[in-house]
């Protein structure tokens, strides 16, 4: 019956493609999951449990600490927000103890801060955390999200059959469009497909897509994601454009494991890769150096470049990786990453390796310093497990 249901839906849906005008640049904001997971015990963890209190204090901080004005606009709820049962009309209901005022009131609070709100559901029979999911309720769920004033929906892929992903993700997006409220559509579709991920199809139906493993709070996890996206860049790059971005998961900056150098690597690479920038940390305990990285306007400007091109790895050898992203006005951003574990050394990028001709003005985006004019190559001292990120601007 599930197959038949989806077959009928896919007939209705036909050949639509998502065209909601959203995510012209990668979305930025804050997302619960990596830091706060599925903490539902508010007695023991009153400040950290998934509750309206967490999202309200986060909205307050995004504004008061200067994140919002740099583009961090989405306050996103992830798994574990609903009651374990739908109501008598078949609608999802927020957990009554943890969200006593309901989702609409929370959305209003967030909107009154000039921010946007995201929510989470799952395409299968249950969410990953075991909460009610959307497979037989797509029309109801998209409609109630719209009624609540939701601005973004993440559709996860637990407890679902791989053979149904394509029709299911398309159908949900079609129902989102039918509500006539523009809601940014975040799909977990390719993350659940082992190989030959159908990026062309996904990019036609999703604003952003989670493409691989969930990030964990460790440098190994960050590096594995960077390497995966470098190794598979030629499959993905053709489909990334304004309105369609490859989501390589949340930022760890502000959490526990990354050093300052490693945090800079993550921020630099996520910007080169045109990835969504979702902080997943407690904004109340952010250290100044962590905040300085997240609020680096010059690197955010690379991430948000209007061309919406995903960058690529052009060199990988001797514990060095060079990455380039082509920007508006014939400029480029370059990240030189060192994976050495001993000492800082000079590392170079030749302009021919990025298919560009000098001379260029070169500016260091972490030091906020102009480094001068370079004709055929650029080199800099890069710290162990660190990064130098520069912008190349053609001579006038």
Describe the 3D structure.
By secondary structure, the chain is an alpha/beta fold. The protein folds into two domains: 28-304, Aldolase class I (TIM Barrel, Alpha-Beta Barrel); 312-394, Immunoglobulin-like (Sandwich), CATH 2.60.40.1180. It has twelve helices and 16 strands. The protein has helices at 2-13, 33-36, 52-64, 102-112, 138-148, 165-178, 199-205, 219-231, 233-236, 260-272, 288-294, 297-303, and strands at residues 28-31, 74-76, 116-122, 152-156, 184-187, 208-210, 245-247, 277-279, 312-317, 320-326, 332-338, 345-350, 360-364, 369-374, 377-382, 386-394. α5 (138-148) links the parallel β3 and β4 (152-156). The longest helix is centred in the middle third of the chain and has 14 residues, at 165-178. It is globular, with a radius of gyration of 21 Å. The mean pLDDT is 97.
